[in-house]
Write a structure and sequence with these properties.
Blueprint lengths: L3 E2 L4 E5 L6 E7 L9 H11 L16 E3 L3 E2 L2 E2 L4 E6 L21 H8 L15 H19 L2 E9 L2 E2 L10 H4 L9 H16 L6 E8 L13 H10 L4 E6 L10 H4 L3 E4 L2 E4 L7 E2 L2 E2 L4 E7 L9 E4 L5 E4 L10 H26 L1
Antiparallel strand pairs: 1-2, 2-3, 3-7, 4-7, 5-6, 8-9, 8-10, 10-16, 11-16, 12-13, 14-15, 17-18
Length: about 350
Amino acid sequence: MSSSFGRIFRISTFGESHCPAVGVVVDGVPPRMSLNEADIQLQLDRRRPGGNKLGTERDEADQVKILSGVENGLTLGTPIGMMVNNKDQRPGDYGSMNEIPRPSHADYTYQMKYGIHASSGGGRSSARETIGRVAAGAIAEKYLLAEHGIEIVAWVSSVGHHDSTAVDMETISREQVDANEIRCPDLQTAEKMVAEITAAREAKDSIGGVVSCVCRNLPAGLGEPVFDRLEAKLAHAMLSLPATKGFEIGSGFSGARMHGSAHNDPFVKKGERLGTTTNYSGGVQGGISNGESVYFRIAFKPPATIGQAQQTVDYSGIETTLEAKGRHDPCVVPRAVPIVETMTALVLADLVMLQKVRL
């Protein structure tokens, strides 16, 4: 199983949804960097279940424990091990589903690949696995801000048929994003999104959405053509997240409908560097950052586990009705916001370090 990510700033996550704990080992963090558990807890608190009425009823404190690599508030340059205990577990909720692969879930594919699958909670395919990513990414965020002033902000830009457009990517802050429970800074659209998720929950159904992300103050030169282009690394990171189904950067698919004369980003002098008057490229040209803000969007499908009765078959092929139990998000995008931010930080920290090696 592939549970590691990155080349210099490298992480390896471990744990299943209902095992005793989940966590991560982080390699490549520079020595003598100020770090404590509170730095990491900020993003884990934003990700944790039970945070608001729009998410799962599973209530986990998700308190991180640093096991190694940090002493007296400073990193040692050695691997940093971190762990979060699973406490609010109800494996009994899944007893009736052990013999029935949930439609559009990973039960069947894990069983086919490994000949076994976790008996409850989705195992490694559960969003609980992302705790290790968020903990490691919080370290990467701190490094990027200190070294380059790089800012990463994600927000919910779509739920169902409701799209947010009134967002200024150059000024949006996490404080604005967290001002409401849906994490959409467009307040009028946010109300419609909340209503859509609430309706899905009441119908024992689920709904999908889109998370947008902007990265500001990136230096030009990040990205490793041709196979590890910046946008390719970001796409790899985002599509490795549970429930993701699409990634687009800059103009994305809408750019396919434009002429080159409209889509090209003309260069101008911006202080001591060249910049562009528009940013349809999304801050990336030839797989390398050009110094403009990098922005992209990720599509998340509706959560697969729903409370409605579904006609399906068990592992032996016998027709049956599945009425799933357990506690599940009716929409994942509000909790996906910090996950997107921290996965982005992991990509950028690795590429910054690779560029430093080259120079």
